[in-house]
Amino acid sequence: MSPLPAAAIAAILSDEYGLEGTASRLPGENENYLITTRQGARFVLKLATEGGGGDVLDLERMAAEAIATSGVGIAVSRIMPTRRGLLEAQCDPPGDGALRARVFEFVPGIPWGEADPATPQRRAQVGRCVARIAYALAPVAHGASRRTHQWDLTAVTAQRDKISLVAPERRHLVDQALALYVASARPYLDALPHSVIHGDLNDENVLVSGDRVSGLLDFGDCLYNPTVCDLAIALTYLVFDEPDPLEAAAEIVAAYHGIRPLSVPEVEMLFPLIVGRLANSVLIAAARRRIDPDRTSWFVTEPRAWRALERLLAIDPVTAAATLATGTRLKIGAGQPAPRALLLERRRQHFSDALSLTYREPVRFVRGRAQFLFDDRGWPYLDLYNNVCHVGHCHPRVVAAGQRQMARLNTNTRYLYDELLEYAARLCATLPEPLACCFFVNSGSEANELALRLARTHTGHSDVLVLENAYHGHTSTLIDISPYKFMGKGGAGHAKPWVHVVPMPDGYRGPHKGTERAAGIAYGDEVGRVIAAADRPVAAFIAESLPSCGGQIVPPEGYFATAFRHVREAGGLCILDEVQVGFGRAGSHFWAFELQQVVPDIVVLGKPMGNGHPIGAVVTTRAIANSFAAAGMEFFSTFGGNPVSCAIGMAVLDVLRDESLQQHALDVGTFLRDGLRDLMSRHPLIGDVRGTGLFIGIELVRDRDTREPATAEAATLINALRSRRMLVGTDGPFENVIKIKGPLVVTEDDAAMFIATVDDLLTRME
Ligand code: PMP
């Protein structure tokens, strides 16, 4: 709204409040006027076009009253009722739309932001004040406080969609701030002590007089929130311009702690909350610029907020928390970062170099939660890569199920116990008939080994058909059926005589490229061709339902139906390896093979099954299981199917169901793929974006016509993403496919951040 003419102000004051005086407009965000009556009494008139309504005004009144009467020792702006006893006057001045007017007692003092630089005394006093305000507001109970608004520090992510209004070169700061907030503050806020808070203890609303904090303005943002949010907001603004903002903040924190002792989680939350508030502030400023770029009062803090964001994000969260806690004596770990060289040396002492490390600059992780892994400096990394922690790192329900069962019973499958029977029944219920007979083991490799034994025993043959570039595990036999290994570094360079390699059904390259059914059938017929050329009958055809190591391939429709027909006609069995891609990742279906309307004879499960706990399984038909039993040899895996593993496996199924993660994978995966495809118009390096659900590949090429693989560029991109704290990998025969296959709990916001980051990094690389 625009400033109101003096006559209109005078009319409001006399009609509604019986006041007469002069009015001068006050600086700041809002339309506020200082009213001085002839007797020298001072008031503040606040005008607004819209507002929170009667209940919220009553909440504001109650909060101000609570502080005024609590002995905090600072003046607050209390409201003056209208002549009719109301908290606001509705007016309709000529020429303007309807307005709401409120009059407050004038509070003397200079805004913190305009006063002389703060002394340690003043910082300590404001710390004590904020703590006392928390006590004063604690008894305030008001229905209207259970609200949210655009400055609500528990709902910062609601502002994320404004990021497109931020200058592109600055968006990554907002993204980093939001990622830290989302990973390190948001999930823990609900568990903190809550109360009504002021909600906007900024450098305009905190007034000082000399070295003293003298007053407090504007209760318009008060709401029920974690109590510590008031401290975080005060810290955000009151140390903006300090040479060392965190040390200055630490003085405030120490004084606060002396009055209202903080818990360790509250202190640890401060830094993520501060950067979250700064992100909130710059996002709202960006949106307001669209509404009225000339309203300078809206943008007074914006440049400072950006500067603060830049400075604070250069500090790691562990150091920040330790600095903020300096005066509290709380135990908050800091210490020096473990020197990478030393860690690498220790690794070298006890391990072989065959055990490789990811990234040019390896990361040291200390904990995980949901879609984030945290390094030793407290930075969250968005995990778009690990497909083992399927329902989120350290999912509390999975952890609890394992802990409970470990404390109750752990034994083996030679005894009867309910967990085994129940888990097998539940697992088989997800699979089509006739897949109903389970063998539990401890890893994908063990499961594939067993699958081969089953196929060989059942068919009496030993030869195996495998896809180009496939990987099925690390045992001797599995290396032999993994071209990824035997054709790769250190491999024999050729297949064993009993192994027959068939072309990868790659829709983007290869002899039958194309995504239509004809391509699927042509690739499927290649299997028939290889069978015909082999001099011995085959026991099995084995493939991943969605070849992952092969380069995040989605076989064209009709591929498996055609291939299976050839294999079965030749007397072989069809094994599908769902170790990487099962359990809802495909989005549209629980099992990736369902995408192709086929049913394998044997399905192999692993990785996501136990969310990180080592479980694998083979599920097959009764007939195949009977042949295996008839051969006479007992099957036993010491750990396979133990009650703890079964309890954990069931918890994973529970979480998948209760959190609708398959549907979530479909929604977020589609959003992510669409966003990445949009980037293709700007970035010629992206040759193809493919996938289903949260199984996604981005194939980088130097030339879209020749499809020359951009291998070095892919390595550069994943290392650059690592430095932006996002984890993905590369794969495919040319190592030029960016693999996305993270936990299913990745959100649309995470996906948006990833898309924006890839866009930014490719722009820089090109
Ligand atoms: N099959 C596939 C498709 C895999 O990706 C892997 C592991 N990367 C395995 C089997 C072997 O599983 P594990 O490492 O649990 O033995």
Describe this protein's structure.
This protein is of the alpha+beta class. 39% of the residues lie in helices and 17% in strands. The protein has a 7-stranded mixed beta sheet, with helices on both faces. A hairpin with a 2-residue loop joins β13 and β14. α4 (171-184) runs antiparallel to α23 (748-765). It is elongated, with a radius of gyration of 32 Å. The model has no long low-confidence stretch (mean pLDDT 94).
Structural features:
elongated; six-stranded antiparallel sheet; alpha+beta; binds 4'-deoxy-4'-aminopyridoxal-5'-phosphate; 766 residues; single chain; 23 helices
Unreliable residue runs:
none
Biggest β-sheet: strands ordered side by side in the sheet: 16-22-21-20-19-17-18
Distance between the termini: 45 Å
Structural class: alpha+beta
- On the 0-100 scale, what is the average pLDDT? 94
Shape: elongated
What percent strand?
Answer: 15-25%
* Count of separate DSSP helical elements: 23
* Major sheet description: 7 strands, mixed
Q: How many strands in all?
A: 28
Helical amount among residues, as a percent range? 25-40%
The ligands bound in this entry are: 4'-deoxy-4'-aminopyridoxal-5'-phosphate
The gyration radius over C-alpha positions equals 32 Å
Topology:
Elements lengths: L5 H12 L3 E5 L5 E7 L4 E7 L5 H15 L6 E2 L2 E2 L8 E3 L7 E7 L4 E2 L8 H18 L33 H14 L1 H4 L4 E4 L8 E4 L2 E5 L6 E4 L1 H11 L6 H15 L4 H28 L10 H11 L4 H8 L15 H11 L14 E5 L2 E4 L4 E4 L12 H11 L11 H12 L7 E5 L2 H16 L3 E5 L8 H5 L2 H4 L12 E4 L14 H17 L4 E7 L14 H11 L3 E5 L24 E4 L10 E5 L1 H9 L12 H16 L2 H19 L6 E7 L2 E9 L4 E2 L1 H13 L2 E2 L1 E3 L5 E4 L7 H18 L1
Parallel strand pairs: 4-11, 15-26, 17-18, 17-19, 19-20, 20-21
Antiparallel strand pairs: 1-2, 2-3, 3-7, 5-7, 6-7, 8-10, 9-12, 10-11, 13-14, 14-15, 16-22, 21-22, 23-24, 24-25, 24-28, 27-28
The structure holds 4'-deoxy-4'-aminopyridoxal-5'-phosphate (PMP).
